[in-house]
Amino acid sequence: MVHWSAEEKQLIASVWGKVSVEECGAEALARLLIVYPWTQRFFDNFGNLSSPTAIVGNPKVRAHGKKVLTSFGEAIKNLENLKATYSKLSELHCDKLHVDPENFRLLGDILIIVLAAHFGKDFTPSCQATWQKLVGVVAHALAHKYH
Amino acid sequence: MVLSGNDKTNVKGIFAKIGGHADDYGAETLERMFVTYPQTKTYFPHFDMAKGSAQIKAHGKKVAAALVEAVNHIDDIAGALSKLSDLHAQKLRVDPVNFKLLGQCFLVVVATHNPAALTPEVHASLDKFLCAVGSVLTAKYR
Questions:
Q1: Which of A20, A134, B6, B114 gets the highest tally of CB atoms within 10 A of its CB?
Q2: Residue ranges of the Globin domain (chain B) (predicted)?
Q3: Do A31 and B123 lie within an 8 Å CB cutoff?
Q4: Which chain A residues are within 8 Å of B35, Cβ to Cβ?
């Protein structure tokens, strides 16, 4: 079980409280598809992903980004119980979506960059460390039911 | 992985924006890396890790200088960093995974200081460049 200190919980809550899930989610997913183009393999039915401009403006990317980050919000509400919270989602990603868990780590790293750009100096080293820990734990929970 | 013409333009552009702050970026990158990925401190057991440490500042300056050198010779990063590559292979032997961690922290520093300049396209190019540098530095490991 992962342990979260009071300071870490505070850093997570204070950042999350100021995040627009829709904007942040859309940007994180768009950047994932742009920076690591092989991740586009999961989104054949998303329409035009032919250029960074197309990806950023793609409504399906925006909608899916929002969905993904909304789910991330659930993780934040259930820090003490992540594996259970993500159990069904983990099975889905393995059995139906066939997503290599490495992609969760890539998205996590991208999310950190998006937060850094959004918060600037307020995204202190401790903040980064806490959030890097969080995205790692979320990725791990999402991979937990893989077989 | 090959750097396109656009990638090279993007990387030169962002480093031009960083300008004289490269040393500070280097130090901040290391500071963030040591805090976020404590295992990276194992390569610096002799370092004072306190905030503002002179050793971290000096080492950050070295790291930044190497990145700038790579940018200035972006058509031949392997040539520009050949001696550094030898050093890492023969003496330092930093495990290859750590270059990714350093790269992530450098991106974070650039993002916190230049959010508008780090567009998705520039982000992609810079990430590729940092991967290329890491590849060069570990190329002679075995």
A1: A134
A2: 2-142
A3: yes
A4: 125-126, 128-129
